[in-house]
Amino acid sequence: MRKFFILTLSLMITLSLLAECSNRSKNTMTYKSGTYEVSYDKPNKNGWLGQVKIKIGDGKIANVEFNYINAATGKLITDDETHAKLMYAATKTTPAKASKQLTDGLIKTQDITKVDTVTGATTTTWDFKTLSAVALDNAKNGTPTVKVIPYSK
Cα angle at 131 between 147 and 103, to 5 degrees? Predict the structure, then answer.
């Protein structure tokens, strides 16, 4: 009988610890509704200016847009077929695929720290996470402005 009691008590403690760990792992961050945009103050060495736009609805990330715009032509990198071919030849991904994977990952996880790095697009991932972190910080405070941050690479 004593062994049964100890076993039952141990099981109850284990289950309660697992439940607590599960609750802590869920992202409980809520954001204020609005649209939050962030871009760099200058383009990278190839002339592309990173920018992100995050829409918050009902306290959650509802939509994310991420792209680079060519500072000279105004063309989006996801529409640049020449750049896509060159990137694919070198890394087996394209700007459009990387952008989609990153934005879908943020919507799914609701947590920028849990978005996976895109293989072959490490710099793109870094830019996305940097810009998105600032946008989400603004969303916590409810300041839906277009923010420009220093480019530091």
Answer: 125
Secondary element (H or E) of residue 35: strand 34-40
d(CA 131, CA 91): 23
Q: What would the two tokens of residue 111 be?
A: 């947590």
User: Starting at the edge strand that comes first in sequence, how are the strands of the sheet with 60-70 ordered?
Assistant: 60-70, 48-57, 34-40, 146-149
Q: Are 49 and 40 in contact (CB under 8 A)?
A: yes
Give the chain's radius of gyration (CA, Å). 21
What is the predicted pLDDT for the residue at 30?
Answer: 85
* Residue at 13: amino acid letter: I
Q: Which residues touch 13 (CB under 8 Å, ≥6 apart)?
A: none
CA distance 35 to 54: 6
**Pairs from 84-90 (Cβ < 8 Å, separation ≥ 24):** 87/120, 87/121, 90/120
pLDDT digits (tens, 9 = 90+) for 95-137: 999 999 999 999 999 999 999 999 999 999 999 999 999 999 9
Cα–Cα distance, 64 to 59 (Å, whole number): 14
* pTM for this predicted structure: 0.81
